[in-house]
Amino acid sequence: MYRTADEPDWEFLSNPGKTAQYRRWFDDPGIGGELRAFASDKDVRMWFKDVPMKEYARAQEGIGRFVPYVQRRFRGADEIVQFFCGPGWSVVPDSIEGKPNHCLATDGDVTRYICWGKDGVLNDLLWAAMNEAVDSGTRPGIVITTRDGQTLTQHARERHMRLANHCGVDLTHLHRTVIDNPDLLTEP
Questions:
Q1: Residues 134, 59: one domain?
Q2: In this structure, what CATH number is given to the domain that contains residue 121?
Q3: Could you say which of 55, 95, 120, 188 would form a disulfide bridge with 104 (CB–CB 3.0 to 4.6 Å)?
Q4: Whether residue 130 sits in one domain with residue 117
Q5: Are 93 and 29 found together in one domain?
Q6: DSSP sequence for 4-56
Q7: What's the whole-model pTM score?
Q8: CA distances (Å), origin 161, targets 37, 105, 175
Q9: Quick one: which H or E segment has residue 123?
Q10: How is 61-83 classified by DSSP, letter by letter?
């Protein structure tokens, strides 16, 4: 499924385009046909949406158990931390999580909470960052990400900055490119 989701670039498909792709997977003997041997048609359709495709965006971020199955993904939390904090910073081991995507970053002396995602989840990022600021007493950071084929207007960027400043949160924007997945599980 992930191989065929990468071909049309799932994240840019319209809702009707995604529905058509779900139908193709359902009708594919090697995907839907295999699953229908174990579950009802309705359960197979729900599984497509609720399991692999719900995890797809996180897997492209290098987060979660589905990472080995995406063909292409982003460089991961290291790229976010290096961009936001600078070259002397790194991800605190085992601190990467989703909902929203976030991690702890350190320079060896200071630790900061960094969360990231598309502008459509800015409200979730702000809420997570403000909660972290209250709980930890440190100033968290937000990185709004775009990818090839996606842009933000200057007005949107400025509004993001004003919202973050109002909330006492640092914010920046990062344009990223997907790379071949270094963790791709290949068939023997």
A1: no
A2: 3.40.1350
A3: 95
A4: yes
A5: no
A6: HHHTTTGGG--HHHHHHHHHHHHH-TTTHHHHTTTS-HHHHHHHHHHTHHHHH
A7: 0.89
A8: 51, 21, 16
A9: helix 122-136
A10: TT-STTGGG-SEE---HHHHHHH
Residues in Cβ contact with 44 at an 8 Å cutoff, skipping those fewer than 6 apart = 26, 32, 35, 36
Provide the residue type at 118 as one letter. K
Q: Which pair of tokens denotes residue 26?
A: 């359902």
CA distance 40 to 51: 16
Give domain status of residue 188, yes or no: no
Residue 126 phi/psi, 5-degree rounding, is -60, -45
Q: Burial of 59 by CB count in 10 Å (0-12 exposed, 13-18 middle, 19+ buried)?
A: buried
Instruction: Give the chain's domain count.
Output: 2
Contact residues for 95 (Cβ-Cβ < 8 A; gap 6+): 103, 104
Flag whether 20 is in a domain: yes
Final residue belonging to a domain, choices 43, 73, 103: 73
Question: pLDDT (tens digit, 9 = 90+) per residue, 131-170?
Answer: 999 998 789 999 999 998 899 999 999 999 999 999 999 9
